[in-house]
Amino acid sequence: MNVEGKRVLITGGSSGIGLATAQALVRKGAKIAITGRRQDLLAAAIGRLGAEGGSVDSIAADLATRQGRETTLTRAIEILGGLDVLINNAGGVRAGRLERTSEADILAMIEIDLVAPILLTRAALPALRASGDAMIVNVASGIALVGAPFYATYAGVKAGLARFGEALRRELKGEGIHVLTALPGGTDTPMMKSNRAGPELGFSREPAAAVADAIVEGIEADAFEVIRGGETRARMIDLNRDNPAAVDERFLAIKPALEEAVRDHSAL
Predict the structure, then answer these.
(1) pLDDT tens-place string over residues 8-19
(2) In degrees rounded to 5, what are phi and psi of residue 30?
(3) Is 154 a catalytic site residue?
(4) What is the pLDDT of residues 157-172, one digit of tens each?
(5) Which helix (H) or strand (E) holds 188?
(6) CA proximity to 154, closest of 65, 94, 89
(7) Which among 160, 203, 163 has a CA at the least distance from the CA of 185?
(8) Angle of CA points 131, 136, 140, to nearest 5°
(9) pTM metric for this prediction
(10) Which of 207, 245, 258, 248 is nearest to 228 (CA)?
């Protein structure tokens, strides 16, 4: 896909990977609408994006609600004059042992990380079909490929989003809409600020701009997946497929330290 002139809606675009992706796309001449829940963060993001030039606007809405999704899609199509690319990036996380995670936090992760992108995508399909050359990008997580302790619900919903994208790609094959799944590893974003785990616990972090550039390259190449984390991540994915018991043992060795490091990790 040539992204120049494409009309792009990015959810969760006020910070982190979403904002970095918006910046990368604006530089390539795309027309962008970003969403977020907080008007102050959206205003700051629009200021930063404005410095890149191009056409950028924002929509304040909560995608976990039906009204928020309806507002987002209606306003985006009005602002952009249609829709060519939907990037489902908004997400939230709460780490910790499952039995100590509140029902409210579990439901919040399911709603924003899985239900919202599925329903927003369903609602956006008529506009994407009208484009004739459209794409859906689902930003999942590397944890969807290798489940980590203390992230059971988050891993479950991100894996669900990844398989949703795979199935939908096949469902829409030959109909003018491609589906790309992005699976970032640890990324230096506001969502990760309350996570104290470092590289020794498997949480190396790369800049959001590097992830965004890879996503845009994937869009341009009509890729199926964009997996970050380099050779280390690739080896872990292979080991998890071929010898999952060995991965279990690796996590067992670091489990007490990992539990302590992520017990306050929350961004909902």
Answers:
(1) 999 999 999 999
(2) -80, 155
(3) yes
(4) 999 999 999 999 999 9
(5) strand 187-188
(6) 94
(7) 203
(8) 170
(9) 0.96
(10) 207
